[in-house]
Amino acid sequence: MSQFYLPHHEQEGEIVEHWDSIQEVIADTTSGRTIY
Q: Its domain of life (predicted)?
């Protein structure tokens, strides 16, 4: 899948937690809604 370059490594924990939530949202919205 996509790889993300994180210039501020200390933010990686937050991004990973957020991304876990986003993956769930995307899985539930395959009907065509745009997820940010």
A: Bacteria
Closest residue by Cα to residue 36 from 11, 21, 4, 13: 21
pLDDT in tens, 2-18: 555 555 555 566 666 66
Provide the pLDDT for residue 2: 57
Task: Kindly state the helix (H) or strand (E) to which residue 27 belongs, with its residue range.
Answer: helix 12-28
pTM as predicted: 0.21
Q: How many CA atoms lie within 13 A of 8 on its CB side?
A: 5
Element (H, E) at 33: none
